[in-house]
Write a structure and sequence with these properties.
With 96 residues, the protein is mainly α. It has four helices and no strands.
Length: 96
């Protein structure tokens, strides 16, 4: 795990946290489903964990210059996992 992957994971976690806490997903759900918005899920935009996971994978996978390989896939999955863990820890720390 390189330092650039850790920075990518931190960035993905912060992006997910800011996006979820800004209220944009709720605003989108209200526009789509109206008053029944609380009954519907808008995955992966509803939770910090899911959004950080997918952002970490996407940023790392599309940001790498190497060819498609098992190493790139494992590295992207690990970056997504670290991003999701950091997003949960940030949310727990900030919501105290």
């Amino acid at each position: 795990m390189q330092i650039s992957n850790i920075i990518t994971a931190l960035g993905a976690a912060c992006l997910a946290l800011v996006f979820i806490e800004s209220g944009v997903p709720h605003w989108i759900k209200v526009r789509i489903w109206g008053r029944d918005a609380y009954r519907h899920r808008l995955k992966p935009f509803d939770c910090h964990l899911c959004l950080a996971w997918w952002l970490g994978i996407a940023i790392n996978f599309f940001g790498t210059k190497s060819a498609f390989s098992i190493y790139t896939c494992v590295q992207s999955a690990l970056t997504g996992a670290i991003a999701s863990i950091v997003a949960v820890l940030l949310h727990k720390h900030l919501s105290k």
